[in-house]
Amino acid sequence: MRNVWTIASREYRHYFLSPVAYIVAFLILMLAGILFVFQLKSVQDMTYQGYYPNPPTAANSVIYPTAFMMLFAAPALTMRLLSEEQRSGTLELLLTAPLKDWELVVGKWLGAFMYILTVYVITLIIPIVLNRLVVPGIDIKATVAGYLALILFTAAFLAIGTAFSSMFNNQFAAFFATLITFVLLWWVVGWPANLIPAASGFFGYLHAYAHLTSMMQGAIALKDLVYFLSLTAVGLFVGTVAIEIRRWQ
Amino acid sequence: MIRATGLTKDYGSRRAIENLTFEANQGEIVGFLGPNGAGKTTTMRILTGYMPPTYGTAQVAGFDIIEESMEVRRRVGYLPETVPLYPDMTVYGYLKFMADLRHLPDPDDMIDETLEIVGMTERADGYISNLSKGMRQRVGLAQALLHKPEVLILDEPTIGLDPAQVVEVRNIIREIGKQRTVLLSTHILSEAQQVCDRVLILNRGRIVAEDTPENLQARLMGAERAILTVKGDADGLAALLAQIKGVKNVQARPDGGVEFQFAPGMDVRPEVARQTIQAGYDLLELRLMGLSLEEIFLELTRDSKISK
What are the tens digits of pLDDT across the range A14-64? Predict the structure, then answer.
């Protein structure tokens, strides 16, 4: 575990020197902020017109937009994790250090995860502000469940990105492979789930969007937790195997 | 201590090294000499646990490289050919990272000590991206020395350094080689001659010769070489020598001398001297030369002339 931490903390610090990481943080925070303001404005307008709209929720104004942004941000954050080490020759250093392959992969993933959690902490401003604006306060349970969903979803998608980064020497190959996988899990597997009733169980289960939205509504179901955690585990496992395969090449 | 037995590595259908068996003992500096693609880096990567061999195995510092890879990696310092540095870190930060990975008990002391050895103490807080090539090489070497490894494996440690730095790095290696086992690769032959106690010449994945630099030189004295210097202009001298029976490979040297070879059994020097004087040249010097390791190396790697 100590080695995981050594790798993760180096990686975490590295993000604060990387322009990509700042762009990701900026886009997430800006998008969440803009959406939040628009929602407040539309609720205000509707109230003036005599309607009684539902107040904005944390899920609508920050959690869902952030998750959506992560479809593009996660590949950008993970693409260089291992492929950059390969390109610059430092992978040879790490693979001959007394460090197990899984410790390297998990450490890399954890570094990216900790970075994005730092950005998420900043987004907490929005639910906190929202809580003061609406009476009698926001649905705390749904907000917590929503953030938990976002965190688990992020963990899983970063693990997939890490796996592709350890497979490819080229960062952009890693980026696109990750992005394509995300698009499949977010949208595409939803289609056969609707079209073919017989296969809906299987495809429906793979559908990341369905798991995320069901948790954002405040229902923490075991199947959703298992889904995200097993996706994370698979990503990290595949990443480790990819490193081992590299050694044999 | 390094003991390799029958190391073989295939990359797909290409065999990179074949059946390498060799030893390097404590207090010994062993040099791998060979042209590019001879299998030096592959062998080092196998010994350091970067990749497994296809066949064969090796013991490094008393542990098996396949079964006990972690134990081996703890005891080996490795400087790969591409110096593995993180440009965004400071020298100190980088060494601290390596010290953490190696679980060193008092990292700061060991970092200070290592920086002292490689002469980088003043640059400890500088970013690696701002260092010159020579300094980067020294930081790479520091990383390999940091944990006082029993076995040091250095892939082309002096490549890209300026002459003064080369001398410094060689001195560091020689100093370390007194107590530890050092395996270094080089294609600079004078380096092997100056630094190594023993040289293994690799070509196309095989060891074609293994001996001390002095013995290798002696073994390859298939032909005697001599050099002839005359006072003043040496024009036409080469042509004259070429006509003498038994004289081969006549070459005019840029310094004005003429170099030639002859079979060891038949000394042509008296005849050469006579003819030179008769032709009206003022003979200054006629002496025998040993083969340089460079020539041995070319000779050996051309078609693996001598077997071990």
Answer: 999 989 899 999 999 998 889 888 888 888 888 888 888 777 888 888 898
Picking from A244, A94, A90, the residue whose alpha carbon sits closest to that of residue B48 is A94
Domain boundary among B218, B240, B263: B218
Residues B77 and B179 in one domain: yes
Domain that holds residue A187: 2-248
Q: Which of residues 73-92 of A touch B (CB under 8 A)?
A: 88-92
Instruction: Mark whether B73 and B7 lie in a shared domain.
Output: yes
Q: Has residue B307 got a pLDDT over 60?
A: no
Mutate which of B45, B47, B50 to disrupt the A interface (most A C-beta within 10 Å)?
Answer: B50
- End-to-end distance of chain B based on CA atoms, in angstroms? 21
pLDDT of residue B301: 63
Bridge partners of B282? B231
Q: Which two tokens stand for residue A195?
A: 């079209």
Query: pLDDT tens for residues A129-164?
Result: 888 888 787 888 889 999 999 999 999 999 999 999
What is the CB neighbour count within 10 angstroms for residue A217? 13
Domain count, chain A: 1
Is the separation of the CB atoms in A228 and A152 below 8 Å? Answer: yes
> Which structural domain range is residue B40 located in?
2-88+147-218
From the list B73, B85, B89, which residue is nearest A97 (CB)? B73
Q: Which of B158, B165, B224 is nearest to B190 (CA)?
A: B158
Q: For residues B83 and B151, state if they share a domain.
A: yes
- Structure-block tokens of residue A184: 């499949």
B126-143, pLDDT tens digit by residue? 999 999 988 999 999 999
Contact A2/B103, CB-based, under 8 Å?
yes
How many structural domains is chain B composed of?
A: 2
| ipTM of predicted assembly, 2 dp | 0.89
Task: Say whether residue A229 is in contact with chain B using an 8 A CB cutoff.
Answer: no
In a shared domain, residues B81 and B155: yes
pLDDT at B220: 62
